[in-house]
Amino acid sequence: MAMHKGVDMIHGIALRYFLEVARTGSLAASSESLHVAVSAISRQIAKLEDEVGTPLFERMPRGMVLTDSGQLLAEHARRALMDADAVLSEISEAHALGRGIVSVGCTEGFTRNFLPRVLAGFHAEHPRARFVLRSGTPSQVEQWVALGEVDVGLAFSTSTSPSVHAEFSMSAPVCALLRPSHPLANKEVLTLDDLFDYPVAVLERGTTVRQLIDWCCSRRGRHLEPLFTSNNSSAMHQFAALTGAITLGSAISLRGIEGVPALLAKRIDEPLLNERFLQVTTMRGRNLPPPIGQFLEVLKAALSSDTEAGQADVAQPRKGRRRAGQ
Question: Residue 68: which domain range?
Fold first, then answer.
């Protein structure tokens, strides 16, 4: 692994200042976060602009916005600086194998059981590794990965963004989650109309579940009025288990959650709801340091195992019937 050509100490400082201004949108805010004088940051950016021969920012009344050239440099700078950090990490590992920080961004459902379990297993094998875990919406996870704020992203998606690289992808259709005693529990496959006949708990907008169910309803000229809405999938599962409502999610989200009454995952005969994937992403073009590469392999193995087990729990269509989305 080699550092990008031209990323020496001087350029490294200038690029870090440049990226902070790009992130905050102003010299003053960057000065405060970096604890560096505004004049020093301004000089470094001026030197970069002089070197590339074009403005990197548009100076707007409300702040500084990247130009097209600035956007290109920002993408390069993030990769270059992270590669430089990776080189230092490799040198450090020559003296302390397994040492390093692994930062993960994910949607909320993975924080309850799945990722803590994977991180704990990785810690057992690499006791000197350190971890940072952040949760947010799928779009936030994508942004964190693209900007290098986290090393690895884990989220549901309906497509792969060009700003990130998909290290792993598996089909993860939206299922109906309901109690074994629910009147629909004996149906092998549910329909969208089934959902309208019973109370439904749905995640807030901004999630792939809500996006896809809203698209389905729009295409059918229907409007779904949820009984319960939340940004927390754990609350959705608990509410469904306690009230008998139907909630929507993935089969994998039900596995290994202690203290939650059993819910069944049922396929829904609606092609759009099958157009969802579970993806592990990293920054496009980034050279990953060894600890992150090792963690990726452990994460992918755990996802493959849990997803296969979760899919086995989902009711399958009758023999000879075409599966929705295939």
Answer: 9-89
